[in-house]
Specification:
- The structure is a single chain.
- Helix content is 26%, strand content 39%.
- The chain is α+β, with helices and mostly antiparallel strands.
Amino acid sequence: MRIKNSIECWIYNVELKGFLLLKCPVTVKHGIYWQPVTGGVEPSETHETACLREVREETGIEIRLDDLNIVAPFFQVEIPENDMDLRKRIFLVKVHSDAVFLSDEHLGFQWVRPELVSRFLLWDSNRKSFALVMAHLLKE
């Protein structure tokens, strides 16, 4: 089984009290779906620097290492149909601006209130990681 290291970053807008979800395009395997910022970790990167890069590339939002809250240092997802073991680090970032500049990788975005987020998510792994994010927020 192939191992892939990745990040998942949940961006929470403090003023809007909502999470940023990105609209992903149709592929040969599935229709349009919503998810947080996600992406692979390059061989020369740490999970943290990969998170900064992915957030900047996918949303135009500039964050710093100090902005990152690690929710789960190791979150494993097996994807048998791709013969892949996805090993994620889950992050939470709080922002105060709603300015988003999408890459051409996504079709759109929206800020979603916490109680509605799970309804938008296609992947069970995203719903599980979001539950961890909410538990983390409630501890604060």
